[in-house]
Specification:
- Keywords: Cytoplasm, Repressor, Translation regulation.
- Belongs to the Iojap/RsfS family.
- The chain is globular and about 35 Å long.
- By secondary structure, the chain is α+β, with helices and mostly antiparallel strands.
- A five-stranded mixed β-sheet has the order 1-2-5-4-3.
- The protein has a domain at about 50-150: Beta Polymerase, domain 2.
- The chain has helices spanning about 25-30, 50-65, 90-110, 140-145, 145-150; strands spanning about 65-75, 85-90, 120, 125-130, 130-135.
- Helix 2 (about 50-65) packs antiparallel against helix 3 (about 90-110).
- The protein is built from five helices and five strands, in the order ααββαβββαα.
Length: about 170
């Protein structure tokens, strides 16, 4: 008996790549990461917003009996912020309460802090609100770190750029 040829079912075609230049994945990975796309600019920032945030922070700290509240304008001197508020609290509970009240005060001004915006250690709480950075210290730590000397008006100007030596 003779076998009859079986018809083969057609295989479904695999999805074809979109037309255009082929991508060489080895060359792409050797070239390093792709540059990020430019961020889309939102509406222009409110020029008085930073001043309102500073006023709200200082008022909150004064209401909580913070000592030696200092505001430093570091615009052009630091790339990570424009204003620093430095204050001293005498006890852990006072410093934690100041941080919680600052979160509320900044929220009333329309600034919602990210979860990781508040960093705490044994003797220092840092609140990163973007253009405003707030440092809450115990007295001993404030003397050790002496941020007023580092960032105050008598400190060296600016940060080092690429290939430059830091003036600090």
């Amino acid at each position: 008996m003779r076998a009859t040829p079986r018809s083969r079912a057609a295989k479904p075609e695999a999805a074809k790549p979109a037309p255009g230049p082929a991508k060489d994945t080895k060359a792409a990975s050797a070239a390093g990461p792709r540059p990020r796309a430019a961020r889309r600019k939102g509406p222009p920032a409110d020029p008085g917003r930073l001043d309102r945030l500073v006023v709200a922070a200082v008022k909150s700290l004064e209401d909580d009996k913070a000592e030696d509240v200092t505001v430093l304008d570091v615009t052009g001197r630091a790339s990570f912020t424009d204003r620093m508020v430095i204050a001293t609290g005498l006890a852990d509970r006072q410093i934690q309460a100041m941080a919680a009240h600052l979160d509320e005060a900044l929220g009333k001004e329309g600034l919602k802090l990210r979860k990781d915006a508040v960093q705490a250690s044994e003797d220092w709480v840092l609140i990163d609100a973007g253009d405003l950075v707030i440092h809450l210290f115990k007295p001993e730590a404030r003397l050790v770190y002496d941020l007023e000397k580092m960032w105050g008006p008598d400190s060296p100007l600016g940060e080092a750029g690429p290939g430059e030596v830091s003036p600090i």
